[in-house]
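Notebook entry, structure prediction.
Reason for the run: the old model in the group folder had no record of what sequence produced it. Starting over properly, with the input documented here first.
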Amino acid sequence: MPLDALFAVLGAALLHATWNALMKRGAGDPLINSCLVAFGGALVGPFLLLFTGLPAAASWPYVVASAIVHVPYFLIIGFAYRIADFSVIYPLMRGGAPLITAILGAFLLGENLTTIAWCGVVLVCSGIVGLSANAFHRGRLDALGLLVAVTAVAIIVAYTLIDGLGARLSGSPAAYVVANTALGGFLTVLVALAVRPADMVAAIRSHWAMGVVTSLMAMLGYGIALWAMTRMPIGVVGAVRETSVLFATVIAAVFLRERFGRARVAAAIAIVGGLIAIQSG
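New structure, fully documented this time:
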């Protein structure tokens, strides 16, 4: 993996961890906060399209498919942050997705990785899951939380493959991610208004700025990842992007006062080792 792409995707990972932490720590229900991020995308997305233009017509079916998949994604992550610690549920949700994505990419798209790169992906995924596995054993994550995490993994794998292919057909990853975010945000807000109209309207009135800021961070981070997916295998980019859990764990320890024990240090070392292998491969 070229160094410029590696550092760019690591920057995207930091952005992803940051906006998720802001959503978890923000005032009110994390589920509404998650929908507020979607609202920000629906609000600023059409304006940004004036600068990026529309993606190529060949990618429009992927934009629509991804937007639909992102509706349950916003809902599931909001619910996850309501029922579990950020440093526990976030790594589990993000951890299994890269390996599954890499395997499906190899079988469905013919994106074969080198042996070293495969080892790197496995190491990264192992470290990511390890960041929260010790918390599960201590009883800080129940069966419902585990079910939510597994559901989130399936959704993440789905939209990563959809968007990786869509971005390659779009002619412009920036236009693709803005169109995707705008449509997905609009659909999510419609669902939120239908289910919890009073809470959603109150959140928009009081915290619309947080929705805009977090949505811009999400768009920038994901846009970088999609740009990288146009240059290299989707599974490799997905694995590097999910190192966001390492940043998230540090954020949780420093700002959310969640514990960072020896097991998580070992997991962090595994992630770094995996990144080195991916870069070498």
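Summary: The chain has a mean pLDDT of 81.
The old model has been moved to the deprecated folder.
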